[in-house]
Amino acid sequence: MIRYILWRIAVMIPTLFMISVLVFTIIELPPGDYFESYIEEMRAIGEKADMQQIDELRARYGFNESEPVRYFHWITGFVQGDFGYSFEYRLPVSEVVGDRLWLTILVSVVTIIMTWLIAFPIGIYSATHQYSWGDYGLTFLGLIGIAVPNFILALVLMYFANIWFGTSIGHLMDQQFLGQPMSWAKAKSILEHLWIPVVIIGTAGTAGMVRRVRANLLDELNKQYVMTARAKGLHPFKVLIKYPLRLSLNFFISDIGSVLPTIISGAEITAVVLSLETTGPMLIRALQNQDMYLAGSFLMFLAVLTVIGVLVSDIALAFLDPRIRLQGGRTK
Amino acid sequence: MAECADLLYVDKINVSFPMPGGRIEAVKSFSMRVRPGKVTALVGESGSGKSVLGRSIMGIESPVANVSGQVFFHDPEMAKTVDLLALPHDGRQIRHIRGSRIGMIFQEPMTSFSPVHTVGNQIEEVLTVHAVLSPKEKRARVEEMLGLVGFDNPSRVFDMYPFELSGGMRQRAMIAMALICKPALLIADEPTTALDVTIQAQILKLLMELQEKLGMAILLITHDLGVVASLADDVVVIYRGEVMESGPVEAIFQNPQHAYTKGLMAAVPHFEMDRGERLKPLREIKVDTAGLIERCSTKQAKGDVLLSVRNVSKSFQVKRSNGFFSKATAATLAVNDVSFDIMRGETLGLVGESGCGKTTLSKILMRGVTANHGAVTFNDGDGSIDVLNAQGQALQALRTKIQMVFQDPVSSLSPRMTVRGIVGEPLEIHGRGNRASRLDVVRRLIHSIGLPESAMGRYPHSFSGGQRQRIGIARALALGPDLVICDEPVSALDVSVQAQILNLMKDLKSELGLTYLFISHNLAVINYMADRVAVMYAGRIVEIAPCETIMRNPVHPYTKKLLAAVPMPNLDHPLDFDLIGQPSKAAKKLWARQFHDDGTPDNLTHVDLGGGHLVLARRNVDARELRA
Amino acid sequence: MSSPAANHYVSTAPFDPYAAEQGGAAEGSSFNQASQLKLTWWRFKRHKPALYAGVLLLLAYLMIVIVEFLAPYNVHTRDVDRIYAPPQSLHLFHDGSFVGPFVYGRIMTLDMDTLRRVYTDDKNKVEKLRFFCSGDRYRFWGLVDANFHLVCPAEGGSLFVLGTDRLGRDVLSRILYGARISLTIGLLGVMTSFVLGIVIGGLAGYWGGWFDMIVQRIIEVLHSIPSIPLWLAMAAIMPADWSPLVVYLGITFILGLLDWTGLARAVRSKLLALREEDYVLAAQMMGAGSSRIIGRHLIPGFMSHLIASATLTIPGMILGETTLSFLGLGLRPPITSWGVLLTEARSVNVIALYPWLLFPVVPVIVIILAFNFLGDGLRDAADPYK
Amino acid sequence: AQDVAREPLSLKEAVAAGKLPPMAERLPKVPRVIPLNTPNLAPGRYGGDVRMLIGGQRDIRYMPIISYSRLIGYDLHFNFQPDLLERFEVVEERIFTFHLREGHRWSDGSPFTTEDFRYTWEDMFHDKELYIGGIPTVFRVNDKEPVFEVLDALTVRYTWEDPNPDFLAELASPVATRLMMPASYLKTYHRKYQKPDKLAKLIEKKGVQDWVALHQKMSRTVRPENPDLPTLDAWMNTTKPPAGQFIFARNPYYHRVDENGLQLPYLDRMVLGVGSGDLVAAKTGTGESDLQFTNLDFTDYTFLKNAEKRFPIKVNLWKRTQGSRIALMPNLNCKDPVWNALLRDVRVRRAMSLGINREEINKAVFFGLAQPSANTVLPESPLFKPEYRDAYAIYDVDQANALLQEAGMVREGAHGIRTLPDGRPATLIIETTGDSGFDSDVLELITDEWYKIGIRVFVHVAHRELFRRRITGGETVMSVWMGLDNGVPTADMSPRELAPTSDEQLQWPLWGLHTLSGGGDGRRADLKEAKALLDLFYEWRRSDTLEERTAIWHQMLSLYTSQVFTIGIVNGGLQPIVRAKKLRNLPDKGLYGFDPTAYLGIYMPDTFWYDEDA
Ligand SMILES: Nc1ncnc2c1ncn2[C@@H]1O[C@H](COP(=O)(O)OP(=O)(O)OP(=O)(O)O)[C@@H](O)[C@H]1O
Ligand SMILES: Nc1ncnc2c1ncn2[C@@H]1O[C@H](COP(=O)(O)OP(=O)(O)OP(=O)(O)O)[C@@H](O)[C@H]1O
Ligand SMILES: [Mg+2]
Ligand SMILES: [Mg+2]
């Protein structure tokens, strides 16, 4: 296993290299560059742009160089821990992210944990009580969560949270705490706001998870080993948890690799709608403005997480099911 | 109503399963009793409802089944009679009884374990539920039990995963699980089908001991009338869910009354049979063997070498449950330098101790497992094929010529295919015939293995153990292969159906020139089927000889012990458990010196005793010395 | 038979060793001949909610063929005098007497203070609905001019059962027309992604080894490229003279091409475990090829998950463009789809003032529920243990 | 003590502690006195924060705009007025002499003198590294730089050879070119004044590449991102980005006072909350903003008005100053030869304009409150004439059809799509950025209307960058944008928007570029009327009397509207402005726009105050 892991880590390097080329290409793909978007931004409110100055800026940041050269500068910097410079914020990328990272992790982790905490019991319940009223009811609720687009849910929740509880609209905290150091009042305000994004981001994911848990569990429930376990006199719940549930987790484990990057990237669109102080909206803006080092470094960071996540999930798979041979071909 | 003397009283139980277009009445108004401390044997045809009954008593039959009736269990410890079926479903009371007061050995040991938990973990769990013990104590108890059921190295087995064990080993693990809490009643559903006779004897001895020591009653479901004769106090004969005959074992064996019982008795193969004699199944199914399977005529004369195996070895690395950083454990040498030939048109019987590598060997021949080294050549007259390295066309051709009946009928049938699909699949793969003709072949195959046509639309899980085994046989025969490797093909069949199947196989062999590699623990069956017999022990072939020679003049001590351990369906010849029931490790110590390798495998070689009789012994020993 | 075991008991019932096994269908009945597919269909039919869901979906798909006829208005019909009109309720009785389905006439006044259009029912004006009538002109499937409708407002009257939007268009008609795109286009992406996911994931899981290694790396690469920059990049390179429909089609398709990774990994992981089963070995030994083993033996064992995933992707397919439209890439007027309708409802104004514009979520929910029940039914029909 | 009592509460402590000089010393000798005793205004009291919402961090750029402290600014009637300057003199539109206020200080207390002008002129504009391409183009007249002189510590002079009538307007514009930067602060970052090792340390600390980047970063005024950069505005930024909330605190050295001698601004702080632009309306509707004008749209009015009942806010409607709220821009430089020829034909442009039912659009999209109009000046402008407004801005399908037929876009019968001279059907792709919510609505309505005159319209949405690029590249035949930026010009303001002078003019980007680049780039205008406009524009630049200028303006307006170079739809659209109910001095009616009102700039937010009694 150790050799396998080392081997996988070695393979990561070419993979990440390919990803970096792709990421670079994709953010270069839209015509124009940051400065062009910058000019347009100015024009949109009526300002005139000083073309001359902008040409100078362009030259300063190497935008008159060829793309491979720029790629080279960026990636060598990245490897050395220099993630580049955000034009939009006029700050080194590492400083831009700042606080947002922690808030993003907070929102994502709470959401993910809530999703699991809710989805698994419900999934198990609806698998074991298939076609009961509970199953139908929860399925129905969950599907509503899926069917209503997040942004509408976000607007509705925000609106009514404001009307009923007086929670201020959007954001992760009341406006006065923005940019303030942490305090009890701020923490309280964050908690007050947190539930809205958690509910919104969580609903679709929860319902999806419920359905998947249910489906996978239903497949395992009739296996012979369940009967064996029952014959031991185990509590049905324990039987469920130890045997069929574990075997039905395959799909879940295979996907935990993608959880890692989502913790950082967050649900971008919802975050935009709710105007959360998370990294998602920042990424989107950076992409739209072609603030390319910010966007590129961010994406590369996500890529590294993805690659690590996939490795973690593969290792977890091998633990989950000892029959799985990660290396061998189809026959032993 | 229930008499207090009965440990278990089953009163008019009915079990039925809904099916498209009707329902299956698996058990019909069935009544029986089990006396405390006694062994009640339940015998009957394959598919007659024995396993369903066992499961229904435990209350673990699948939820789709309709169960009605009453099952009274009088627990001597609680001195109270309860109706098991009336207890709340999966409630506390019934859970307390399960595993602790009533233990169950499932018929399909191969699939009854969860594949992702270690054997030890799964056995230990019973203790966790029913006893208050420290983890250390639990492990010790489990290891002790594993040792009792015949494992050489219990602590190693404890940490192994079920799929790393051989069929027989899993069955023993299952037995250990059922016995670990020392229940008052043991429902043993075919507990020894996957065990060779020596281990079987060991297990039976263990059961007897427990029965005596703890007053444990056993509801023994078995096909092996020999085991019944050696063990049972009472016998219940079941046929299609109904009691045909019941009574004390003496009464049944010496004076069978019912036509069905008589038929069963008559169908048992025995050693005194003539080589040409046919078994007499209860119902003879006329099968037109020629039309049954499509097959090209034999191109090669009988007696040529069809398959030659040279120096094949295979070792396994065991996965460790305790983290991946631990050191790799020593590899198991499952097959060790095995060489033999199979002639065209013959049946080579392969017998050996449980876990000695028979299944592994047969899978190597099928390219299901890659051998570490060695060579296998297949030659049906169209030129020889290097089995272990064949690719593409050659491999595909090989796949039509060699077929296998798996030891585990459950897991080798796709759970999501209907029988029709399963049996017809080889035909479909190799493009034999059209839809209609394939359907026709399938129908005839199903008929010839004694299943009704309605079976075609059902899924494997809804069959009894024996029925599934027959489906596997039908599938293997569908293509009309040259060589069929049968891994315990009839272990789950009652004697009558077994007779029917064996006859069928024999007919096919004589009429179409099929060749069989026949792996079995049942020496009577081997005697009936095989032309030559190879005996395996711990990965090596220890003796190989024509069938009569082995049966009459065994040389190797293991072979001798094997023959001595065969239970006879005859009350006059009960097994001497003290003699044969000793663990194989202990028995090995008693072997004569010339059979020991003294730690150096190279010391041993196959000594030719003439007449095709080879035996594994010291290089330089004299043949006469061996016979002594 | 008071004590069957103690003494020798012999059944006296007639004994026929040749009797066929009890239960199941009779010899030669159609059940025995039926292929697995047929059996599955029979079992499916017994699953009532699934059957109804299936029928509902069938109706929905039939409906989109004749929306022009079903919708009371043409999608493009707008009336600047009826902007943001709330839904009109249908009545049967007027002044205690039965008139048949009708709506009351409407009077609009402008509230110049709040700049709101205020609608009041004119209880004297009974506008009786007309059925199988001629109303708005339309071009059926863009080919034939016609004006035949299932239901029309009274002459000179209005019929806005679900209200109107900011240009005075009938929401109901728009929903009906929107179904056409919502129920079809996204399917393409979903199908592409499923086929790829199952095939590639299946092969990677079954073959393992090098192939798996490479596929996993490809998945990592694709997975590392979040969809948003990709959309942005794609939107930028799509030729400008493509119609929005074609662009959307293209984006959906490309997304499908990239979206298979999650599914592929799930399939692969499951197959890595399933391929160790004996029945796979058995199939290999029969000479079955990879595609057969994957398709016939392995994938069916993972069918529940696939069906669940598919039904879960359907909302994504119906509403996919809502996300895209956040980035300015979604479908646009004049093309109508449920996603477009919901995107148009994307403001607090709507929630606070014109909530009826949110109505399109209802058909989305209904369709998703229907797909879900259908999926459940299929799952159960394919489940041997049911 | 008396003085301290008059201090704003937020400064009292510092003044009492002696950290800050008292008000009298902070003010210039001659502060600018703002008279507030008009019927609608009132002198106020100190104190309070104003919360505002912005749609992104970059929108802190609104602050210097609405602060509107300029050397010279517009008053409410768009007359020039010295603001930071005490006074100024203009000779022949060539020689500009500026007199600073004595004792005027930057927000950090350093004196504001001609040194700041000199620094900017010599050490910034003329530094070969800072300004690689030389001084900003606004200073060049006929490619010649002015002569810059420092007359004394308070007087500077810029002298051109040729008249530069735009100069004052440039200085009064919402985002004016800065002639002066805080020299004493910026010298720290200038190579000429800073020791190299110290500079290197600073470069390192700020994470920039070299001193040029450092200087640029530290001296950004358009977006006041550097809290340390001294300013002359009413409020100065105190928050370092990135942040979710920016606090602008009062500038204690601000140069304006009310007539009671109270130093402005009244309001202590402007607090800008950063959020998604889409949420601004919702949040404003829940009383989370005390002053909101950005990110609100006319469509939000009803919602906001309803919110008045629940929250202490007041919603007003101001009139937007654009020449047309939304206008179609036929691209006279488009590549498609057939369309190019057609669009150059005035009959086609007129027909298209006549084919639009502006009343319907006004009713459907603007609640009937806007004014159907060509793209021209608003009645608020002294240059307004009804005939400009109505030029081809009536709805006349028959005339439109006739004109198109004449122009060679023929069709059989009275319905269906016309064919272009080369036989193609007359389908027209209109490009939009889809930024404003109603674009697509208006286009949908136009699509229907134009179908009646035989033109089939497809709408294509392009990203902003792409949008421009395609227009300049001639790939776009027609686009949608806003009309004239400044719909309320006076004759003193440059009529450049009416002539091809900039590549931003979507109807003739190449011609505009040609003028802009001094002939180096783009193409010379080759349409008679466009050339005429350009000539008139040059004439305006040379003219030096108001009458002359007025005449030229009218000629241009009449030519521009009758030629329908851009197809205006409606103007005078309304813009909701939300304020806290008790916020005084923000008029209920006003003109809203970037140019020339600088949004709220000319209404002087520094005079806003909270009337706690209201
Ligand atoms: N889940 C099920 N669904 C439908 N039919 C079933 C199911 N389980 C068992 N049966 C049927 O019930 C009958 C009895 O099965 P059972 O397993 O009890 O047989 P058995 O006596 O144990 O046979 P064997 O000796 O072959 O194991 C068989 O005909 C079988 O096909
Ligand atoms: N996948 C595996 N991993 C590790 N060890 C294995 C594996 N498969 C088999 N073995 C070991 O190889 C040995 C031979 O197993 P095999 O299944 O061939 O025995 P067998 O002769 O068929 O026994 P039985 O009669 O009990 O079926 C056993 O000790 C078993 O534990
Ligand atoms: Mg059985
Ligand atoms: Mg075996």
Automatic annotation (TrEMBL), chain A:
<dbReference type="InterPro" id="IPR035906">
    <property type="entry name" value="MetI-like_sf"/>
</dbReference>
<feature type="transmembrane region" description="Helical">
    <location>
        <begin position="5"/>
        <end position="27"/>
    </location>
</feature>
<dbReference type="GO" id="GO:0005886">
    <property type="term" value="C:plasma membrane"/>
</dbReference>
<dbReference type="GO" id="GO:0055085">
    <property type="term" value="P:transmembrane transport"/>
</dbReference>
<feature type="transmembrane region" description="Helical">
    <location>
        <begin position="136"/>
        <end position="161"/>
    </location>
</feature>
<dbReference type="InterPro" id="IPR000515">
    <property type="entry name" value="MetI-like"/>
</dbReference>
<feature type="domain" description="ABC transmembrane type-1">
    <location>
        <begin position="101"/>
        <end position="311"/>
    </location>
</feature>
<feature type="transmembrane region" description="Helical">
    <location>
        <begin position="294"/>
        <end position="320"/>
    </location>
</feature>
<feature type="transmembrane region" description="Helical">
    <location>
        <begin position="101"/>
        <end position="124"/>
    </location>
</feature>
<dbReference type="Pfam" id="PF00528">
    <property type="entry name" value="BPD_transp_1"/>
</dbReference>
<dbReference type="InterPro" id="IPR045621">
    <property type="entry name" value="BPD_transp_1_N"/>
</dbReference>
<keyword id="KW-0813">Transport</keyword>
<comment type="similarity">
    <text>Belongs to the binding-protein-dependent transport system permease family.</text>
</comment>
<keyword id="KW-1003">Cell membrane</keyword>
<keyword id="KW-0472">Membrane</keyword>
Automatic annotation (TrEMBL), chain B:
<dbReference type="InterPro" id="IPR027417">
    <property type="entry name" value="P-loop_NTPase"/>
</dbReference>
<dbReference type="GO" id="GO:0055085">
    <property type="term" value="P:transmembrane transport"/>
</dbReference>
<dbReference type="GO" id="GO:0015833">
    <property type="term" value="P:peptide transport"/>
</dbReference>
<dbReference type="GO" id="GO:0016887">
    <property type="term" value="F:ATP hydrolysis activity"/>
</dbReference>
<dbReference type="GO" id="GO:0005886">
    <property type="term" value="C:plasma membrane"/>
</dbReference>
<dbReference type="InterPro" id="IPR003439">
    <property type="entry name" value="ABC_transporter-like_ATP-bd"/>
</dbReference>
<dbReference type="Pfam" id="PF08352">
    <property type="entry name" value="oligo_HPY"/>
</dbReference>
<dbReference type="InterPro" id="IPR013563">
    <property type="entry name" value="Oligopep_ABC_C"/>
</dbReference>
<dbReference type="Pfam" id="PF00005">
    <property type="entry name" value="ABC_tran"/>
</dbReference>
<feature type="domain" description="ABC transporter">
    <location>
        <begin position="307"/>
        <end position="563"/>
    </location>
</feature>
<dbReference type="InterPro" id="IPR050319">
    <property type="entry name" value="ABC_transp_ATP-bind"/>
</dbReference>
<dbReference type="GO" id="GO:0005524">
    <property type="term" value="F:ATP binding"/>
</dbReference>
<dbReference type="InterPro" id="IPR003593">
    <property type="entry name" value="AAA+_ATPase"/>
</dbReference>
<comment type="similarity">
    <text>Belongs to the ABC transporter superfamily.</text>
</comment>
<protein>
    <submittedName>
        <fullName>ABC transporter ATP-binding protein</fullName>
    </submittedName>
</protein>
UniProtKB/TrEMBL annotation, chain C:
<comment type="similarity">
    <text>Belongs to the binding-protein-dependent transport system permease family.</text>
</comment>
<feature type="transmembrane region" description="Helical">
    <location>
        <begin position="351"/>
        <end position="374"/>
    </location>
</feature>
<feature type="transmembrane region" description="Helical">
    <location>
        <begin position="245"/>
        <end position="267"/>
    </location>
</feature>
<dbReference type="Pfam" id="PF00528">
    <property type="entry name" value="BPD_transp_1"/>
</dbReference>
<dbReference type="GO" id="GO:0055085">
    <property type="term" value="P:transmembrane transport"/>
</dbReference>
<dbReference type="GO" id="GO:0005886">
    <property type="term" value="C:plasma membrane"/>
</dbReference>
<feature type="transmembrane region" description="Helical">
    <location>
        <begin position="50"/>
        <end position="71"/>
    </location>
</feature>
<dbReference type="InterPro" id="IPR000515">
    <property type="entry name" value="MetI-like"/>
</dbReference>
<dbReference type="InterPro" id="IPR035906">
    <property type="entry name" value="MetI-like_sf"/>
</dbReference>
<protein>
    <submittedName>
        <fullName>Peptide ABC transporter permease</fullName>
    </submittedName>
</protein>
<keyword id="KW-0472">Membrane</keyword>
<keyword id="KW-0812">Transmembrane</keyword>
<dbReference type="Pfam" id="PF12911">
    <property type="entry name" value="OppC_N"/>
</dbReference>
<dbReference type="InterPro" id="IPR025966">
    <property type="entry name" value="OppC_N"/>
</dbReference>
<feature type="transmembrane region" description="Helical">
    <location>
        <begin position="306"/>
        <end position="331"/>
    </location>
</feature>
